[in-house]
Amino acid sequence: MSLETETRPSSAGEEQVTSCTPYKRIVEKDCTEVKLLDLSSGDPHGAGIKPITFVRQVAAGCMYPRILRGDALPPDARLRAQKLLSHFDGGSVGSYTESCGSMQVRNTIAKYISLRDGGVPSSPKHVFITVDAQRALMVMLRLLSQTEGVSAVMIPDPAPHTLTPLLDRMGVVPVTYQLQEQSGWSFERAELNRAIRESRGRCFTRAIYISNPGNPTGHVQSRESIREVIRFAADERLFLLVDEVYQDTVADGSEFVSYKRVLAEMGEPYSDGVQLASLHSLSNGIMGECAFRTGFMELVNVDEAVMFYVEVLLTGDLCPPVIGQIALDAMADPPRPGEPSYALYTQEVTSRLMTLKSNMSRSVEFINDLPGFSCQSVQSGIFIYPHLTLPHSVQTQSVGLLYSRRLLEDQGVCVGFSEDHTHSQNCCHLRLCVLMPSEELEGALHRLRCFHFQFLKEYCGTEETEPLNEFN
Question: What is d(CA 336, CA 53) in angstroms, rounded to the nearest whole number?
């Protein structure tokens, strides 16, 4: 295997960390090669989760139409591939589609949205297929920051780890509002009021960004919570940027309700006055098709002239990846009862959801048993987001950096982190992806436990230790 090696200064006996793609990295320690477990990013297929068969069958039929002549594919997958090819120029996935995506696929997505939202209408003209949800967000930020003055967007804390760097690149100021961890990462209107009030005079806040279901917190907003945010956006004349990419991962006992649906239910003046962009993606959630790099955005209550400029900005991409558009079509219109692929599709999706639910419960319980850790229950998404508090005897400016670096070096487990100076300089949050085969998760949790007790012994002087059984 070809590897790129990044060597850091080390003393005798220390390891080198060899970097390539997640789950194919290697940690070299005492002449032993061990698979590195990357829990910092959501790459379910890289972690061992298998792709959805129907999606790959339709994609295979479009990529290699010769197999459509035989019976290698089930009839419904074959018909779907033939239908999609008939809408591509030259009958080939090698041709460009419209800059905003194939109108056939946009039609499929609009029908999916309307069905999801209980019949609330959706127009394919308001659906834009993009190079993942991040690209759609970039387009909207560019549009919102066209006016004079310093443009700002309200964002939650915690927020997706890619959001702040994106705002920096776009020259947009983040106005941070705190989610309330102890009450399940809830929203408080008073906190939203505080954040926007303190921003006045230094920037012009154009929008509020919402992640629902929450990334990386895993919370799911109730209807009343969504209504309160919509009222706030209306009062402050803010554009709603809503990241809903984990909508298909909600656990039993919780319900995902889209912002668009609640907006429609609220009636005037909200239903026709509050502007909204809703984002979804193939990369996140149950599909986990990260490398297809395709997502979509629906705009609600946005002026037609603005729609035109969205399309103009997207023309720079020529068109979204066609293979990703094919997968989006399969995601938005999966096999139906009575069709040949329905049983297998349902079995695969159900199995994946059960694995995710089991892994969430297992990892939260496990983490809460470790001294210094606390973790809120998770309702959705693919991450857990535990809080770590270390004794003040640990002298460091970055608890998260120290802990995560040592965990990587000592046990070969890579996690994301964010510092938490709102409570103490000795606090941080870790971000761990749990959508993976259960045996992989058990191995990662075992390594974390071994490391944690050794870390406490080394840095905190605690006697509460366990044997450091490395790289099981």
Answer: 15
Q: Which CATH architecture has domain 96-332?
A: 3-Layer(aba) Sandwich (3.40)
Q: Residue 239 and residue 154: Cα distance in Å, rounded? A: 10
Q: Render pLDDT for 423-453 as a digit per residue (tens, 0 to 9).
A: 667 899 999 999 999 999 999 999 999 999 9
Please tell me the distance from the alpha carbon of residue 120 to that of residue 138, in angstroms, as a whole number: 27
Rounded to two decimals, the pTM is: 0.89
The helix (run of H) or strand (run of E) holding residue 277 is: strand 276-281
Q: How many CA atoms lie within 13 A of 467 on its CB side?
A: 4
- Give residue 57's Cα distance to chain centre: 25
What residues does each domain of the chain span? 4-48+350-460, 96-332
8 Å CB contact between 29 and 471: yes
CA–CA separation, 315 vs 261, rounded Å?
30
How many residues are given for the chain?
A: 472
Query: What is the edge-to-edge ordering of all strands in the sheet holding 32-35?
Result: 4-6, 16-19, 26-29, 32-35
Q: Which CATH number fits domain 4-48+350-460: 3.40.30.10, 3.90.1150.10, 3.30.420.40, 2.130.10.10?
A: 3.90.1150.10
